[in-house]
């Protein structure tokens, strides 16, 4: 068995955006964060693993015939399906809306082989994971260099985020998880909600460390841009939410994100070597 982790270095860092349910803004965060990183002149690829009528690919105005399913099924390569997004962002489209958004181990092995040639040509790979807490999705999140969970200020966002963090910690052994607040009143409210969330988590998950990356404020411009099938950072760059995404991208870009074992689940090294 080839030990890819020892023989092939990579520059790309894999960031997985997760939540336990749909509707908390995960896809919006993934798309706008990817584009904001690209605006910093970082070589960024958005991998859309959450098919749906308003998935990340369609939210940018694209309706490609080819998708990541063509790569998983062996019909096409990554280079044949990738879409050139705004600001030199690369977008790997999700599959048809009637196909379950599930990337199991066999599919990840195929994706690993397909992504391997890009391990040094990218700075960031942002993965919009399926909006569910099934084991395959959480295993994919756990394998990333930077697992991110969305803490929404809407509905049951607090408990949904806690459930996702709990599963990542107890069932997948994740010890460090980043949190992004979304759809909150202001930065003070976002930090306060994170503080309460961290305190609750610390009571029951003593070995898990949470870090706050930033918050995205409630902003009607986000929905207006979405109706036009655009990202708010592209359509309304001066909007409060767009500035929040820009700050978030700068924060992530300033971090020293290590290439953890498993982070190459899309590049054909550690995770795939470990799987065999």
From TrEMBL:
Q: Does the keyword ATP-binding apply?
A: yes
Say yes or no: keyword Nucleotide-binding present: yes
| GO BP terms, alphabetized | negative regulation of cell division
| Stored Pfam families | AAA_31
The AAA+ ATPase domain covers 12-207
**PANTHER family in alphabetical order:** CELLULOSE BIOSYNTHESIS PROTEIN BCSQ-RELATED, SEPTUM SITE-DETERMINING PROTEIN MIND HOMOLOG, CHLOROPLASTIC-RELATED
Name the chain's protein. MinD/ParA family protein
């Amino acid at each position: 068995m080839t030990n890819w982790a020892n023989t092939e270095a990579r520059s790309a860092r894999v960031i997985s955006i997760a939540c336990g349910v749909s509707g908390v803004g995960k896809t919006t965060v993934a798309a706008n964060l990817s584009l904001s990183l690209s605006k910093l002149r970082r070589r960024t690829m958005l991998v859309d693993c959450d098919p749906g009528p308003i998935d990340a690919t369609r939210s940018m105005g694209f309706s490609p015939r080819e998708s990541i399913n063509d790569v998983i099924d062996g019909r096409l390569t990554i280079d044949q399906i990738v879409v050139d997004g705004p600001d030199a962002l690369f977008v790997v489209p999700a599959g048809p809306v009637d196909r379950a958004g599930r990337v199991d181990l066999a599919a990840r092995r195929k994706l690993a082989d397909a992504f391997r040639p890009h391990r040094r040509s990218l700075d960031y790979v942002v993965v919009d994971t399926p909006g569910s807490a099934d084991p395959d999705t959480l295993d994919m999140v756990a394998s990333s260099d930077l697992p991110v969970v969305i803490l929404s200020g809407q509905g049951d966002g607090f408990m949904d985020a806690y459930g996702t963090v709990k599963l990542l910690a107890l069932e997948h052994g994740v010890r460090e998880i980043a949190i992004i607040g979304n759809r909150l009143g202001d930065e003070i409210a976002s930090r306060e909600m994170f503080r309460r969330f961290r305190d609750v988590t610390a009571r029951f998950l003593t070995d898990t460390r949470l870090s706050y990356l930033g918050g995205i404020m409630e902003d009607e411009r986000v929905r207006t841009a979405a109706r036009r099938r655009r990202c708010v950072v592209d359509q309304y760059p001066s909007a409060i939410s767009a500035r929040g995404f820009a700050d978030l991208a700068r924060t992530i870009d300033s971090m020293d994100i290590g290439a953890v074992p498993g982070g190459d689940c899309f590049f054909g090294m550690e995770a795939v070597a470990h799987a065999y």
